[in-house]
Request: fold
Amino acid sequence: MIHVTKTYLPPLEEYQQYLKEIWQTGWITNHGALSQQLQQALAQYFNCPNVVLLNNGTIALQIAVKMFSQGTEVVTTPFSYVATTSSIVWEGFTPVFADIDPNTLNIDPARAEAAITPNTAAILATHVYGNACDVEALAAIAKKHNIALIYDAAHAFGCHLNGKALVNYGHMSTLSFHATKLFHTVEGGAIITNDNALGHQASYMRNFGHNGQEQYWGLGVNGKISELHAAMGLLVLPKVNELIERRRTLSQRYDTALAGRLQKQQLHPGLQYNYAYYPVLFASEEALLNTRDALHAIEVQPRRYFYPSLTALPYVQGSAPTPIANEVAKRVLCLPLYYDLPEADVDRIAECIIKSLPS
Ligand SMILES: *Cc1c(COP(=O)(O)O)cnc(C)c1O
Reply:
């Protein structure tokens, strides 16, 4: 069975070496040597001073949203993973959906601006599949209305724009290091910010608000990453460029084999892409379901990611209509893409897709 993704695992002996170190010191969590080492390595990788490591990408979103409480609403995209919206609701804010651009699949800045009210605390936008949002337009809107700009950058590890890591845009970016992501720590995540005050706030919020053992900076939660998770990150990070390179090769192979038969996401000009996903858009939901059935028959499991549109969640009400996102969500499918996917399988998958398309 070929799944949409497969986790890259480093050689077991290398991980065992780290386990030995951990057993020797007896320090298994709470900002230990390995998590500090990973934090520094990522700060260098992103060229950003404030990398706050966390135990998953959802807590990263929750902490980020919580930090901007001068309002009750968060303007966000209906086309993302459920955690983008659920985090807003979990923190007691109301998500206000702004529709997406049908080509980039990212939030449409003009619609985001139109959704701003005096109650807006922040814009939370996702770099969907690693494609950069219109960062210039969104920054101008956030500045004009004096609201926070947060990016859910869970897909954007390794993406660069205008010579800098994409996570450096906005007031803050959140990352997921879940096993299904390009770079992973099994479970994990981070907040990235160039604002030292925000970085400090995020780092005490992750640790119950502690300021030493007997004082508190403020309200906090438990968002700490363990040494066992950090060790995985230290082994995957040096491989990241190779992982991206392999995905690029496979993506280009899909491009050639599918020969323009399916619509693709339009990438931001100048984006250095990470090839995190291989999404394709069908002409209709019917065509998508037909192709999916054909792929299932050859034991290939693509994923309807993201489906349905987040406006359909049972706990969000009164959303303005977002017809583009609703329609795109019905027509998009992510094809298998991972480090050790053989070329022959890409060819087989593409052939099956072409045969299944209406002529
Ligand atoms: C994976 C993902 C998350 C959630 O991250 P976890 O580490 O699984 O909690 C949030 N947003 C997006 C866009 C994601 O893809």
